[in-house]
Write a structure and sequence with these properties.
CATH topology: Spore Coat Polysaccharide Biosynthesis Protein SpsA, Chain A
Strand content: 25-35%
CATH class: Alpha Beta
Strand order of the largest sheet: 3-2-1-6-9-8-5-4
Radius of gyration: 18 Å
Number of helices: 7
């Protein structure tokens, strides 16, 4: 069975009705699972009335924040250059939530993703043995070795939209990275990108239309528009309809 999965905390509850309405306009019967990442009782009831609610107790907690910075790769320890990691950043729970999906084939959609077309072709795409597909990016982020002044570039990916199956070993490896090395990366999709590109892991890649960033402008062929970033969320907040659960 195919289905959509997402996760939500109290700070994102206002997005739920808008997100749900966009999906139901194109897929009135597609199953949806909502993961409780610390939502209110009102939002819990709202989600339960419209889909499957995955209780927070069912999701693996983040391990204690690793004290030793640096992910061991090719006999050197590396960390992401740039913003310091946040010990309990909720985004790092994404792969842990994905492991709890009740569907055989799942589409993860961030709550700032707007469905504006038919998702059936995306669900039907052929996946590699890793059983996971994501949109790659032309952007690079930089890793630097600890104490050795070496740098390497890693091709980014965007984890706002992910197609996967329950037995995906790449998903399991991503979870391992989250638990063991999240202090060496700034955000969750950097861990995934590092695993894909530095361990030469085969991954399915879908086109830009299935994860089109709103700031890129109008795309009549887009199927999923991703309102990523604080500025784009402000646009949604200002022009939203009635969004409260």
């Amino acid at each position: 069975m195919n289905g959509i999965i997402t996760g939500c905390d109290r700070n994102q509850e206002w997005l739920l009705p808008w997100w749900y309405e966009q999906i139901r306009e194109h897929h009135p019967d597609l199953p949806i699972a909502f993961a409780d990442m610390g939502i209110s009782d009102t939002a819990k009831r709202w989600c339960s009335d419209r889909g499957i609610l995955i209780p927070e107790s069912q999701i693996d907690p983040l391990s204690p924040f690793p004290q030793e910075i640096g992910w061991l790769y090719q006999k050197k320890k590396w960390k992401c250059k740039g913003c310091p990691p946040i010990p309990n950043d909720i985004s790092f729970r994404k792969p842990l939530i994905m492991q709890q999906s009740p569907f055989e084939r799942s589409l993860w959609l961030d709550l700032d993703c707007q469905v504006v077309g038919n998702l059936t072709p995306l669900f039907s795409m052929k996946l590699p043995p890793t059983k996971l597909a994501v949109r790659s990016s032309a952007a690079l982020f930089e890793m630097e070795s600890i104490d050795e002044c070496e740098k390497m570039n890693v091709a980014s990916c965007n984890s706002g939209v992910i197609l996967f199956e329950k037995e995906s070993y790449l998903l399991h490896f991503w979870c391992h990275l989250v638990q063991q090395a999240r202090n060496s990366f700034c955000v969750d999709d950097q861990l995934l990108a590092f695993a894909i590109h530095k361990y030469l892991v085969p991954v399915g890649e879908f086109s830009l239309k299935n994860n089109w960033l709103s700031r890129w402008g109008l795309n009549k062929n887009a199927v999923i528009i991703h309102w990523a970033g604080a500025e784009e969320k402000n646009v949604l907040w200002l022009y939203r309809k009635e969004l409260k659960p």
